[in-house]
Design a protein that fits this description.
With 518 residues, the protein is mainly beta. Helices cover 5% and strands 46% of the residues.
């Protein structure tokens, strides 16, 4: 970009269900800043989605690396013209294109796009990645001009005993612990011009001066990103957004971000012994912070942990994280691929009668771990009720979260990646559309038509807009549920007609026609 690098997020920060795969460059709260190619190469791919990375651009370089640019507001020059042609060819805003070499070559420093706030972005910025094969690599390790003279901050250290509740170290210099324990560290970093709570580059834990655990953010395989759930104190993170990195390593969750770990990351001291634990955290420029404290081991006060001591049967099934699980019950079927869990565990599947429009409620519960599933698994629910336009939903209080559902006889099936209470229900309500910046039959000022689209349950699956009978591109912002139609040069003088067609996942359709004057 044209301005100095200032970060709003660093590489491998823990997010909900994934590691941050790049760096976020601040753009002064504005969209439309120039984005240039990092090096010579060619555009090898374009991805556009109302969610996630929004408008994305992939540039392949001769040395085998690929640079990735996300949340863009627009593509520049011939790239933009190519993208629009493909969208009109597909009659779709969302787009996935792999582009062969020679179609869209670029030179280092060439204007390729404009920064924006598309997709799941929380504000205007440029998300930038460097990939090689299936791995994403910290871009700051490639010598980008980045000023950082501010050390990280250790905001919290916790001890997690095998028995009992976590203990916060705080300002105390000494603590006693009964039995085995592991350690969690919450640290943040800042730099000149950056936001104040970015992720650190690496963390080290020493016991009596010997390295016990090292966490780093050099690189990671993209398909292992969800293992972030098992790296942190997940229940605490879900409540507070504070990612305490844990030293304990679950057998199904070890990744290359763990540079070193003694054993399984649990500390086991002889009763009565005292040891010094030192935590050090570093940023990319090797500024660092550290804290030491003493731990005295005392005798455990109760019997050994009962983890994994639950019996099979009565709806309880043992799951080994590295093996698939298949359950064929009378009214529920579960198919889980290997690595659905991060550790061996016990699953329980309960059933209860449905009420009202809900039918055949089933609960799926992981008994001895608070972690969500690592992989999608298949849930099938049987109900004798003949439910039209059926959809499986997860019930969370008064809220319902729907999954795309298929039917075969009395069985309804969906891919899910949650535990909880599930039910088969019906969605017969069509999606809705609302006008934002004009009234039906009134004047339209400017060249952009804005609409709101929504659905009460299964979600909008497709939409199409037609201006004066011809399909027209409408950009979908998932965050605001808004469609924006940039129609400069496509209006007629006087009365114009806009037709909007929406279809939800269950096939309910809405067709609305509006007019406006120019």
């Amino acid at each position: 970009m044209d301005h100095d690098i200032a970060l709003s997020a660093t590489f491998a920060e823990v997010r909900t269900g994934h590691f941050h795969a790049g760096i976020d460059m601040r753009t002064g709260g504005e969209e439309g800043k120039a984005v240039y190619a990092a090096a010579d190469g060619y555009v090898c791919g374009v991805r556009i989605s109302p969610w996630g990375g929004g408008k994305m651009l992939y540039v392949r370089h001769p040395n085998g690396y690929t640079s990735v640019y996300m949340h863009l507001s627009a593509y520049a020059g011939e790239i933009g013209r190519y993208v629009e042609r493909e969208q009109y060819k597909d009659h779709s805003y969302s787009l996935v294109r792999d582009i062969p070499e020679g179609v869209l070559p670029v030179k280092k420093g060439q204007l390729i796009a404009r920064s924006g706030n598309t997709g799941g972005s929380g504000g205007p910025h440029l998300h930038f990645e460097l990939r090689r094969g299936d791995r994403t690599i910290n871009p700051l390790r490639f010598g980008l001009p980045y000023v950082d003279n501010i050390p990280p901050v250790i905001r919290g250290i916790r001890i997690y005993p095998q028995q009992g509740e976590p203990v916060a170290i705080g300002r105390q210099e000494a603590v006693s612990v009964a039995g085995p324990f592991h350690i969690g560290v919450y640290a943040t970093d800042a730099a000149e011009g950056s936001t104040l709570r970015n992720g650190v580059d690496r963390m080290e834990v020493y016991v009596d001066g010997t390295l016990f655990f090292k966490y780093t953010t050099e690189a990671f395989p993209l398909d292992s990103s969800r293992l972030s759930n098992a790296l942190v104190d997940y229940p605490h993170f879900a409540r507070t957004r504070e990612p305490y990195i844990l030293t304990r390593i679950l057998p199904g969750a070890r990744g290359e971000w763990i540079a070193f770990c003694q054993g399984d990351g649990w500390l086991r001291f002889d009763e009565g012994s005292t040891h010094t634990v030192t935590v050090k955290v570093f940023d990319i420029k090797s500024n660092h912070a550290e804290k030491s404290f003493r731990v005295t081991a005392r005798a455990a006060t109760s019997s050994a942990s009962t983890r994994h001591a639950l019996p099979d049967g009565m709806g309880v099934h043992r799951v080994e994280y590295g093996r698939p699980l298949k359950i064929n019950g009378e009214n529920v079927r579960i198919v889980m691929p290997p690595q659905t869990l991060y550790d061996h565990g016990y699953m329980r599947f309960d059933a209860e009668a449905g009420d009202g429009f809900r039918s055949a409620i089933r609960s799926v519960e992981l008994l001895d771990s608070p972690l969500p599933p690592n992989e999608w698994y298949t849930l099938s629910i049987r109900t004798a009720a003949n439910i039209d336009k059926a959809v499986i939903v997860r019930l969370d209080g008064a809220k319902q979260y729907a999954y795309k559902t298929t039917r075969e006889g009395e069985w309804y099936t969906a891919k899910v990646r949650d535990w909880g209470r599930f039910a088969v229900t019906t969605d017969t309500v069509p999606p809705r559309v609302a006008l934002v910046n004009f009234r039906d039959g009134g004047p339209l000022k400017g060249n952009v038509i804005k609409l709101k689209i929504s659905d009460d349950l299964s979600g909008v699956e497709s939409y199409h807009c037609y201006l004066n009978g011809s399909w027209i591109l409408a950009e979908h912002d998932g965050k605001t549920a808004t469609l924006a139609i940039h129609a400069a040069g496509k209006f007629k003088a006087g009365k114009n007609e806009l037709r909007v067609e929406l279809t939800d996942v269950c096939g309910n359709r809405t067709r609305q026609t509006y007019t406006f004057n120019r």
